[in-house]
């Protein structure tokens, strides 16, 4: 079945598909003409690019996040087009049959390797798959991969929950060298980032611009604090101290542990769960789940963050705060678009009356 027929069978209009391609183009600040390359890459994706998905020290939360796209959507279509040859949680095969599927795909080469979970550095008494230490499996499978993606914070830093004391794991970058590596940290991985990254790679045949942690700058280039809908309350000095006080609804969550001022992520512009919401919108402080400090150095998660010194002792200028919010919103437009399109709907960001 061709792409157009596939779109039609899922009641997705071609117009929406092209909007997704346009949003990916905008998110990565590419020239408008690149949209055609993205569209053509996605059409070729119907030939099903092969994916090997390995799980190490993980909770399978990133797999859940990846699979839990809502109702038929453009994102689901793109994810459906991937040929997942090996994935311990979802594959029907097991034992020797599963290991053979892995070996056959490795022989073919040129696949995308996704690693979820951290990788034990030395101790070979646990995290054995097929009797082999996970560390060795990752290095072996990476050899013939065209691209390696570290999905989620555990895979990127060896951190996350498995990285809490005592930490025995490492991130993909510590074991895989001389391969294009893209890290997509957060807990769990954010599906819209995975979709956009895979589409970009299929079209450009290379990784998008990355920061020093190999994270796409398009998703990790700005502080959450700079785009947060509660930023106006921060500037006014309104900090939530009592969850039960209705008067404090929508107040800044810094005193309740918010790590937004230390976290680089597009969460405030591109909401989670297909544009449904994100942490601060739902009343929860940012845990900094995509940062290297998560979880260990950011715990306890609900500790007052005012010792960071952010905003305290600063005079409040409501006019400046308002101008700031407008500026931040404009700066976030490029990445904002992709979440709206992937979701088929989108957040009306910075509406304080919607805050929990
Ligand atoms: S809730 Fe967090 S990110 Fe938002 S303004 Fe307050 S400190 Fe910044
Ligand atoms: S707002 Fe913070 S805790 Fe929530 S998903 Fe984004 S980075 Fe993670």
Protein described:
Strand 5 and strand 6 form a beta hairpin. The protein is built from 15 helices and nine strands. Residues 309-353 have low confidence and may be disordered. Helix 2 (14-27) packs across helix 3, helix 2 (14-27) packs antiparallel against helix 15 and helix 3 (34-44) crosses helix 10 (191-204). The relative contact order is 0.13. It folds into two domains: 3-220, NADH:ubiquinone oxidoreductase-like, 20kDa subunit (Rossmann fold), CATH 3.40.50; 224-354, Irregular (Cytochrome-c3 Hydrogenase, Chain A, domain 2). It has 356 residues and is an alpha/beta fold. The chain is 37% helix and 10% strand. Strands 2-1-3-7-9 form a five-stranded parallel β-sheet, sandwiched between helices. The longest helix has 14 residues, at 14-27. The structure holds iron/sulfur cluster (SF4) (2 copies). Residues 186, 224, 263, 265, 267, 278-279, 286-290 line the site of one iron/sulfur cluster (SF4).
